[in-house]
């Protein structure tokens, strides 16, 4: 079992700021939290090494790239074995239209996928030529997103 890193108020502020602006310079970050640049950078590196910061990404507007159809897809599997799940997960990770894949409980589905595609034809191709071709997939239930009400990439840091 991995021991969690103890974080203080500086670390919490660093995490909060970096989630809002991962492109901020170390100098600006240090000024905002009231530390000099060297200790600030050491803290950021420690947060990265502890796995609290897992990476940095640019957020992209999919619609401006012509990807205007978002769907949530519930996937049911024929067998609930580690091997079957591992096969599904190694297959689904290679499909670029899949933004998220969650193993879930409490539903009729085993997995919930969040996908984004150009249009309904694109969705049909994804479903028929990629997702349902994965060994073990026995059921698919799709809900199309009408509007994204809340989209956060930021985790609350208390």
UniProtKB/TrEMBL annotation:
Residues 7-68 form the HTH asnC-type domain. Keywords: DNA-binding, Transcription, Transcription regulation. Pfam families: AsnC_trans_reg, HTH_24. The keyword Transcription regulation applies. It comes from the Bacteria. SUPFAM superfamilies: Dimeric alpha+beta barrel (SSF54909), Winged helix' DNA-binding domain (SSF46785). PANTHER family: LEUCINE-RESPONSIVE REGULATORY PROTEIN (PTHR30154), TRANSCRIPTIONAL REGULATOR AZLB (PTHR30154:SF34). This is Lrp/AsnC family transcriptional regulator. It comes from Methylophilus aquaticus.
């Amino acid at each position: 079992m991995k021991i969690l890193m103890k974080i203080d108020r500086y670390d919490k502020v660093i995490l909060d700021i970096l989630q809002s602006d991962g492109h901020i310079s170390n100098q600006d970050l240090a000024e905002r939290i009231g530390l000099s640049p060297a200790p600030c950078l050491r803290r950021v590196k420690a947060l990265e090494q502890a796995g609290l910061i897992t990476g940095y990404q640019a957020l992209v507007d999919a619609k401006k790239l012509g990807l205007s159809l978002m769907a949530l897809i519930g996937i049911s599997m024929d067998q609930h074995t580690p091997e079957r799940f591992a096969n599904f997960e190694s297959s689904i990770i290679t499909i670029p239209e899949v933004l998220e894949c969650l193993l879930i409980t409490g539903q009729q589905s085993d997995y919930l996928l969040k996908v984004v595609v150009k249009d309904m034809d694109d969705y049909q191709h994804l479903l028929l030529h990629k997702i349902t071709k994965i060994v073990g997939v026995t059921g698919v239930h799709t809900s199309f997103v009408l509007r994204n009400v809340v989209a956060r990439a930021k985790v609350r840091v208390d």
